[in-house]
Task: structure prediction
Amino acid sequence: METQAKMIHRSLRKFGRLPFAGSVYRSMYRWTQAKFAHRDFAREYAAFKRLTTENNNPRFQLRWEDRLPCLGDKTAATEFDRHYVYHLAWAARVLAQAPPPLHIDISSSLHFCTMLSAFMPVKFYDYRPAELELSDLTSEAADLHALPFKDKTIHSLSCMHVVEHVGLGRYGDPLDANGDLKAIAELSRVLAAGGSLLFVVPVGKPKIMFNAHRVYSYEQIVSCFADLELKEFALIPENSRDGGLITSAPSEMVNTQSFGCGCFWFKRNA
Result:
């Protein structure tokens, strides 16, 4: 028997075929889904409450006013952000090949820096410094347009999913159409001879999605770091059907992406 939700969904799909009705359809569909999700939540609460009352000595207090509905987690598979899960896994694997005595990170994921500090000393820098208190981890303020390091002095460096934002004002930084290029120049300036740079940005057809981020072509990034050697390129395709973390990915594959994730391991020759 067709459920009420499916009947409404089928009717809304027919309505959605009308001109200019797409946005209305999506809004109505989301509203319908939320309505049924809240109804099911209330039914499950009542059923669970009956279970607790069967226990003469309940271990917890259960009150309707303490409810905190989580209505979007009943999925067939665990969902995750492909960019942020895979690119951190890639960087950790690169560093594990030859752990440095000290690693410098510029504004990458706090999850990456905090966990990495369990295995090696890490110095983390951000335009908006984070209040972190962990052993072998320091957190300080820094501007990617003026890093607080002398030329060619950093041997292990990462800046991942950061540069695409620089100059767009999203995080309170000044608007600068070439802000990303200036940041790239700074990263190259401080990398020591024999040093490694782990650099990650969105890749695909070049565009600016103001004020969120830029998307780069493979050729743009390689040309920006022309003074460095590309030791490895890994791609995280936007579509899971195309794979997870693809190491040694062909550069041509980037051209098929709209919002893939490019992981570049650069080295400066000794």
Residues 82-267 form a domain with the Rossmann fold fold (CATH 3.40.50.150). The longest helix spans residues 22-53. The helical segments are 4-15, 22-53, 82-97, 110-116, 179-190, 218-224.
